[in-house]
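tool=predict chain=A
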Amino acid sequence: MAHTTARAVVHRARGSEDPAVVERLIRLVESEGLDVVAGLWADAAPVSLPGALWRLYALREWVRRDPQTVALRYRLGVAAAPVDEAVAGVPAPPEPGDLRALVDTVLSGVYAGDLAVALQRAASFCRILATGAAFDADAREAADPDGADRLTRGGAGLQRTAQELQAAARQWRSGSLD
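tool=predict ok
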């Protein structure tokens, strides 16, 4: 069911000339709820169309709910990832609104642009956030070892997500992303 719904949503939107369709899909979590989207796609293989969609919507929801933390992690990580900064395409210095615009643009690219580029931009964004989480963990280690450990694990998760999105982009280009 995950693959069927993901294919239907993506291909219907990509075949539509109506920008309102894309806008509704960008805001899918806001209208349907994160639990509904998770129920559809969260258990799908990470490198699959539904798995990639789930990761993009979860990333968008994090940026929407906690833009200050995301902006801090981005600012901490961006200097160490200049190539990813160029690919992600976030203005410097990033404001929370810039990050919200990025994730909306990425989702728009899934439905009305080059899906592989959208996935690559999201992967670069995740790599920058992972680097920022690592720097933040290092800074907190002495005062809050448990918090630093949580940040390190979160950063590792973001790095894994970046790898999965990058792999999904490659598969989309080869025509094998299901």
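The chain has a mean pLDDT of 94. The first helix runs from residue 2 to 15.
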